[in-house]
Amino acid sequence: MTHNLDNLHARLAAVVDAIRAAESRHGRPAGAVSLLAVSKTHPSQAIRAAAAAGQRLFGENYLQEALAKMAELADLDLEWHFIGPLQSNKTRPVAEHFAWVHSVDRLKLAERLSAQRPAGLPPLNVCLQVNISAEASKSGCSLDELPTLARAVAALPGLRLRGLMAIPAPAEGLEQARAPFRRLREALEALNAEGLALDTLSMGMSDDLEAAIAEGATLVRVGSAIFGARQTKPEHLPQSRRAAE
User: Which of 47, 88, 228, 232 would you label with 13, given CA atoms 20 to 30 Å apart?
Assistant: First the structure.
């Protein structure tokens, strides 16, 4: 399948318009929600086209693919977010090359990222992934584990704990979809009441954008609505259901 780059600018604009409309409907300030364009499996030229249309934040799931794109697009001022499952033996390239990681769900990962973040770079921005719907198939810490994990990660050098990320179970209707996002927002508010200064709720994808924005999302992850259907992924890469976008 070839990418229809001619329509990419229009698709990107439509997604941004949908975000701004949802902000307005739910009393959010204009521009309160940032768009993370999920570019996994899509080629560098598609990212370059999106960047030409003004998009700067890009999310990647697969480390080797992401590193290759970063090298090809090094001439652009882009902000790269790692949003896929993170294995402890793959933390060093994430620490060395990404600005954000959204999928930290245990202290061991955070400690490795902290130790491996180069001293010459700004702190690595971290979101803790929460298994907000308590699904056995999903990564993420539990809400019960979250306060202890958050306090420990916030104390690590080389990292800046920014907020929380979640991928809830599919829901029927807006109100049902809002419930897990509400729980995540309340968890962030509880952490801030303890003295943490978290400012990021990474939640909401193409099919639950409205619910996430209604409940306070500050960063939404959208892929196919911008880039078209996901491209074939190399066979050696693990498949995960509804992984980040």
Answer: 232
